[in-house]
Design brief:
Order of helices and strands: HHHEHEEEHHHHHHH
Strand order of the largest sheet: 1-2-4-3
Structural class: alpha/beta
Helix content: 55-70%
CATH class of one domain: Alpha Beta
Radius of gyration: 22 Å
Bound molecules: zinc ion
CATH architecture of one domain: 3-Layer(aba) Sandwich
Number of helices: 11
Strand content: 5-15%
Shape: globular
């Protein structure tokens, strides 16, 4: 009797071990199999549409594609009023990957759903239609504005980066699911610098960040991320402390890519 019980326990333990180790291993193998099939298509989409990607080295590009692939496969994309196209999830995911490329935790794992709208939409708390927002149910953005920002067609603005910046702080400070240790620690230092500028701006100081950054500290953060990537040269010259704190926080410096270009043209004053 005791022998049967012992065998049952051993079999149960072996089965439990298979569930813990075996299934994640199979899932990872399956994921790697899909990645090998999709990597070239991802590369082509990013190379055609994504400015940030084209400034990376070959090794960085490989890492960028892998992260983008993982991000896409960890989310459900919903298309509201428009037809899905292959590049849509890739480019939205790439925006999140851009923001967190210097960090370890990039998946925004709290969020499962991303909604892409055809046009601006209404929320009950706002009088005017909006272009994007984030709440605990998902990340929401309008495709035309996302594309304009991605293509650098809106001065200092990038809707995708703006919403991903909100999502990143939401994950790190509200949900606690998908926290990046470096980011959550360093953010306090960023806030010290940011708060001073925010108060000065609310007292009348004009800066490259513009009026929208004065609404509250959440918007200040999201706008500062947009300008950091979209206009790093001006931000560096106008608000050097803010630029440095963002570079430290995100562990990347958009000026490096520009430096490489300007150095090759014998100009290195940035
Ligand atoms: Zn916002």
């Amino acid at each position: 009797m005791a022998g049967i019980l012992l065998i049952t326990i051993v079999l149960f333990l072996v089965f439990a071990l298979y569930l813990v180790i075996g299934i994640p291993y199979r899932v990872r193998r399956l994921l790697l199999h899909h990645y090998r099939n999709d990597a070239t298509a991802y590369h082509q989409i990013l190379q055609t549409h994504f400015r940030y990607y084209n400034r990376l080295t070959s090794a960085e590009k490989e890492r960028f594609v892998w992260r983008t692939f993982q991000f896409v496969n960890s989310k459900r994309f919903h298309y509201v009023g428009l037809k899905e196209r292959d590049e849509m999830p890739v480019l939205v995911a790439a925006t999140a990957v851009q923001l967190s490329f210097g960090l370890e935790n990039f998946e925004l794992s709290f969020f499962r759903d991303i909604y892409i709208f055809k046009n601006d939409y209404f929320l009950t708390q706002y009088k005017a239609p909006i272009q994007g927002h984030v709440n605990r149910h998902g990340i929401y953005l309008t495709w035309p504005h996302f594309v304009k920002g991605m293509n650098g067609m809106e001065s200092n603005a990038n809707l995708g980066l703006h919403e991903m910046a909100h999502a990143y702080t939401f994950v790190n400070f509200v949900t606690g699911c998908g926290v990046d240790k470096h980011f959550s620690k360093e953010f306090k230092r960023y806030m010290k610098v940011a708060k001073t500028i925010y108060l000065e701006m609310n007292a009348g100081r004009k800066t490259i960040l513009g009026h929208y950054a004065t609404l509250n500290m959440h918007e200040f953060w999201a706008v500062s991320v947009e300008v950091f990537f979209e206009n790093p040269v001006l931000l560096y010259h106008e608000l050097p402390e803010l630029f440095q704190s963002l570079a430290k926080l995100l562990q990347q410096n958009p000026l490096n890519a520009i430096r490489k270009k300007t150095l090759s043209a014998n100009y290195s004053s940035i």
